[in-house]
Amino acid sequence: MDTSLNKYIAESGFCSRREADEYIEQARVTINGELAWKGTRVKPGDKVLVDGEPLPKKKAPVYLMLNKPKGITCTTDRQDKTNIIDFVNYKQRIFPIGRLDKLSEGLIFLTNDGDIVNKILRSGNNHEKEYVVTTDHPFDLEFVKKMRAGVRIPDGMTKPCFVKQEAPNRFRIILTQGMNRQIRKMCEALGYRVTALKRTRIMNITLAGLAPGKWRLFTPAELAVIQELVKESSKTADGEGMGE
């Protein structure tokens, strides 16, 4: 049975589907010696190479969570000295699920399971992400109401969401979509600049007991809940996912 090329690459544990698409677009993937393109199907027996190298043999899935500190970049590019892969220094090849801005901190997942990456990133499935955000100056109730209702940013209109003020210039927000730098752009549209942003929860997983800069593997119970949450995952528009 044939399968889509990006799924085939992701399921090997080499990278996520999104990154696989980037490799394909950059003309770095061949099938049986021929240059591949997006939408290509892989048939049994086909030889797929990335940068001239065969894909790794599929390994047991790994799922871990990191309390990312500021200054670490959510990229697999090892030429970036602040890349998250070297920071975690895990023994197998893994990649982040979604992203946190370099200046942001908090919870992020890493894995070698390209299939679960795709399911979690599908924002149409309403997977919650919770953040604590500090702004450069105090805000009023009107700001909170506007954030709750949805804000027009360059990427489009944000969905209504939960927002609660916790201090004169700090609020808690729960998102179910993941436009790039969404919270920062929402605040900027209303005349505020984010000075600190911390993700404290993704779905059923929180930062509880995980110190900044530390990581741990998922427990079987945590993984079981996540697998259940993404079981009915449905397709969503390109470009949406677990950003901030």
UniProtKB/TrEMBL annotation:
<dbReference type="GO" id="GO:0160138">
    <property type="term" value="F:23S rRNA pseudouridine(2604) synthase activity"/>
</dbReference>
<dbReference type="InterPro" id="IPR042092">
    <property type="entry name" value="PsdUridine_s_RsuA/RluB/E/F_cat"/>
</dbReference>
<comment type="similarity">
    <text>Belongs to the pseudouridine synthase RsuA family.</text>
</comment>
<keyword id="KW-0413">Isomerase</keyword>
<dbReference type="Pfam" id="PF01479">
    <property type="entry name" value="S4"/>
</dbReference>
<dbReference type="InterPro" id="IPR020103">
    <property type="entry name" value="PsdUridine_synth_cat_dom_sf"/>
</dbReference>
<dbReference type="InterPro" id="IPR002942">
    <property type="entry name" value="S4_RNA-bd"/>
</dbReference>
<dbReference type="InterPro" id="IPR000748">
    <property type="entry name" value="PsdUridine_synth_RsuA/RluB/E/F"/>
</dbReference>
<dbReference type="Pfam" id="PF00849">
    <property type="entry name" value="PseudoU_synth_2"/>
</dbReference>
<dbReference type="GO" id="GO:0003723">
    <property type="term" value="F:RNA binding"/>
</dbReference>
<dbReference type="GO" id="GO:0000455">
    <property type="term" value="P:enzyme-directed rRNA pseudouridine synthesis"/>
</dbReference>
<dbReference type="InterPro" id="IPR020094">
    <property type="entry name" value="TruA/RsuA/RluB/E/F_N"/>
</dbReference>
<dbReference type="InterPro" id="IPR006145">
    <property type="entry name" value="PsdUridine_synth_RsuA/RluA"/>
</dbReference>
<feature type="domain" description="RNA-binding S4">
    <location>
        <begin position="3"/>
        <end position="61"/>
    </location>
</feature>
<dbReference type="InterPro" id="IPR050343">
    <property type="entry name" value="RsuA_PseudoU_synthase"/>
</dbReference>
<dbReference type="InterPro" id="IPR036986">
    <property type="entry name" value="S4_RNA-bd_sf"/>
</dbReference>
<protein>
    <recommendedName>
        <fullName>Pseudouridine synthase</fullName>
        <ecNumber>5.4.99.-</ecNumber>
    </recommendedName>
</protein>
<dbReference type="InterPro" id="IPR018496">
    <property type="entry name" value="PsdUridine_synth_RsuA/RluB_CS"/>
</dbReference>
<keyword id="KW-0694">RNA-binding</keyword>
